[in-house]
Sequence to fold (619 residues):
Amino acid sequence: MAKIAINLSKGTIEKDSNIIVGIDLGTTNSLVAYMKDGTPHAVKDENGKNTLVASIIHFGQKEEVVVGNEAKQFLVQQPENTIYSIKRLMGKSFKDVADLEQYFGYKVIDEDTDSLVKIRVDDKFYTPIELSAKILSQLKSRIEAELGATVRKAVITVPAYFNDAQRQATRDAGKLAGLDVLRIVNEPTAASLAYGIGIDPEDTQIVAVYDLGGGTFDISILQIQQGIFEVLATNGDTFLGGDDFDRVIVDYWIDHYGLDKSLLKTDKSRSQAIRLEAEQAKKTLSTKDKFQSKLGDLSLELTRETFEQLIRPLIDKTLKACKNARTDAKIEPAQIDQVIMVGGSTRVPLVQQMVSDFFGKSVNNSLNPDEVVALGAAIQADILAGNNKDILLIDITPLSLGIETMGGLMDVIIPRNSKVPSKAGRQYTTSVDGQKNLKVAVFQGERDLVKDNRKLGEFILAGIPPMAAGMPKIEIQFILDADGILKVKAKELRSGVEQSIQMRSTYGISEEEMGKMLLESIQHAEEDMAVRVLMEAKNEANNIILSSDKFVEQNKALLSEEERTTTIELTNALRESAKGTDKDLINKAMDELNTYTHPLAHRVMDANIQTALQGKKID
Ligand code: ADP
Ligand code: MG
Fold:
């Protein structure tokens, strides 16, 4: 029975829509689409103009948040409060992104560990999941306004090369935005679906998807047969896109008009204005031969011919990546049946021409390149909704399966809606020196704390040889067969000790109960995330306290009295805050301790290397 609720303040009828929406959560732009009268349709803003929402989040003075095109203007004025390219940080630890630090205008922090990055805005700390959820919420309200109904289910796209952690982070962002993410779909798969490729199960094709966006370039080669999309190879450049086209135009103008470079560095609003003009010039030249404009007393000009000269080397770089992908996929040029163009930057005529020359065939570019991924996601969503009777739906697992980790958190190993049979694994380690046993408790459900999920079983991996905390490598594998039997294996890789258990994943649970668990997970997503973030901060704080105590103890001789007392004071402050429940306070204390000890740690390390070298000389 459908429920209908009336919103008294707006006087509108609120109902749940059973439409599953398709979302392209992009690095530069995001958008939402759905199936309307049998064709996919991208949703526009309230003015009926743009379908794209800039993937930018601005935090104002009183924590008010602006998402999308309105946030763009703050990029230059308030870089530290304006978050862009958050997709680059999804599911990443600080180690993964340490060398990108300069790229971001905002503060990306972590404690030099394997844990996931956080973003600091004033005294608040956010995870990439929370920030992406803000973009998703914006898209959710946009489509709800169009449909006049609540939307709860979505398909979200990710690049084909995203790993499990990045995919799981994307799912979590969806959940936090109040969306049940039925499927994570590869962007090139969605683009192919938008062109109708792979919908007919008889269809067998090899497709190259060329995706040139704002800041990234991806080439994927897919083999499609019997409705299955297999990624044969991916390649690309995570720092090459339309932004670089803008940059070469700005550089050209500076050179050509003899503009003062150092002045542009200090006058940020002027340099931003020139950059925006450059983007306008680029877009104009996609349809015209010449661009002309005035910026104050400055007349700016650019011909298509000059523009093409400037960007040719950049396009050549993308073609090299295409060549590598083709080699990796072991595909001869003639075997590629179709080339699909994705991303706003493929509107540039020279890009289309050079790609078409490279592959030796005309390219598919009849659909809007910045919408094509979202349109395909909407088609995939419609298939999942069972609206396309020609397509057989494969068996999937209805609830996520995972294990309990530190602080009672649920760590998902096989996400809900994964294909059955399915196999997945992850590595863990110990948290105490000399730990011999590890308890593996297996749970099912969507909540962040295992206490709110269903326990399926547990066992103990015993006989781990004594090692320092963090040294053992324990691999946990989940193998789910077609009948829903789950086998869980744990193995310490250094010593080879192993243990396993088998259980029935669907035993004693009705469909109604499953539905209830799902609904609860979305209703409690915000508070669950708050607890998760707090527990993670506490775990991390405890690790840092341990190593800081060790550091002071072991390097007495190398630290001055003041350095020693300050480190101890900051460590004690962290110890205190870690007892409380304010995650921002804990994060702040960690950040302060790390900022202070970072140079000390370097000095101590250098000194230790010196001693080691001297020791060698003496022998
Ligand atoms: P992403 O997938 O990275 O989120 P998009 O596919 O939305 O990015 O591409 C954004 C890029 O496309 C920007 O650099 C933008 O300037 C560029 N772009 C948009 N329209 C045009 C156009 N008409 N001509 C050339 N470039 C364009
Ligand atoms: Mg994209």
User: Anything to note?
Assistant: The first strand starts at residue 4 and ends at 7.
